[in-house]
Design goal:
- Helix content is 56%, strand content 0%.
- It has 103 residues and is an all-alpha fold.
- The chain is globular, with a radius of gyration of 12 Å.
Amino acid sequence: MLQSKDLEQHLLSGLLKYPDKYFEIAPFIEKADFFSERGSFVNQTIFIYLRDALENKEPVDSVIVAQRLKNNKISFLDNLDIGEYLQSLERMQISPDSIYQTA
């Protein structure tokens, strides 16, 4: 279990940037690994949408994931702008090799 918001963000950032790495870490990570802070399931929800898209061989990036969440009327506490949050994840500095280490 990750239980670190920074590690969760690092992993999600890596999956957005290097989606092909998902299948290397899939055996080690699941939705229950993402911690819920004050009832906010932001990172867990993003992971679920990324996982489902990648397993269905669909393209992923911050815009696509944000649109899918909005289309499904998913919202989060504190009126989080999911598009901006996902773009901030995509801008994080991460190498392909560190995704495996994080998972």
